[in-house]
Amino acid sequence: MVKNKVAPGQPKVSHLIRELRRLTGLSQEQFAATLGVAFSTINRWENGHMQPSPLALKQIKMMLNELTCSPVVELVEQSQILLVQYFSLSESSVG
Predict the structure, then answer these.
(1) What is the set of domains in the chain, with CATH numbers?
(2) Which of 43, 46, 70, 95 can bridge 75 by disulfide, Cβ–Cβ 3.0-4.6 Å?
(3) Helix H or strand E encompassing 15
(4) What pLDDT is attached to residue 12?
(5) Alpha carbon of 79 to those of 5, 23, 30, 87: distances in Å?
(6) What is d(CA 77, CA 3) in angstroms, rounded to the nearest whole number?
(7) Would you state the pLDDT for residue 88?
């Protein structure tokens, strides 16, 4: 759980977490269990108090990649948008 400043022009990671949960239909508790973290960690990420660790970001990216294979067009489109916004340069660009 790394505390990083957001780079200018970079979308906040809290948006990424909320959107991924919305796309997957998972509660904060369910999302936490999927990533192997505590519920309070997800809550802190979404509220901008903490940033996900590099390992968590890797897992989040894998979840988004899996959604790009969905038969549901909206899931594919939204997951691709999030991948481009947050992971187009590298995991270290997420902030």
Answers:
(1) 13-88 (1.10.260.40)
(2) 70
(3) helix 13-24
(4) 87
(5) 24, 8, 19, 11
(6) 30
(7) 77
